[in-house]
Amino acid sequence: MRKMIQKIKAYAGGLKKRNRENRPNDGADGGFTFVETLAVLVVTAILASQVGVAVNRLVKKARVVSARNQIEAFKVALNSYYVDCGVFPTDEQGLGALWEKPLLAPVPAGWNGPYTDRTVPVDPWGTPYEYFRQGSALMPVDVPDGLSFAIVCAGEDCVRGGENDIVSWRD
Questions:
Q1: pTM listed for this prediction
Q2: Alpha-carbon span 71 to 83, nearest angstrom
Q3: 17-26, 123-132, 137-146, 152-161: which range is least confident on average?
């Protein structure tokens, strides 16, 4: 019986030794290969570029929405100005008349502003909004008849008259 136990132990020891030889080295060579690391970096770069494109698209859309909202706020403020003063600001007075009482003639006696909660900002692309009163020689030609004023944001290209314009008379 002892001989049999010794044979079993010898056989089991041999198996352990063989398994150790077949296992990967537990030392410093157990990391990722250069090719595996490179593949992970390429996949990460592709995913990051897709996220960048999506974020850029959302930022562009947010700028357009911001400009539309600001124009709507100007329209409300201009109508409040009209109720108090009986006229809309002149082209020369512009949207600044919503924040501080105009100094240029005709100075409205009923001005009860400010009609906005802060100074008139520039559009999301950094250019000023353009304001035109009915009858102005500078009024854009595509403004429908009967509108008392027009507000134009030049849009992404920063040039009035392009297809990127955001205007008060269209959605």
A1: 0.69
A2: 19
A3: 17-26
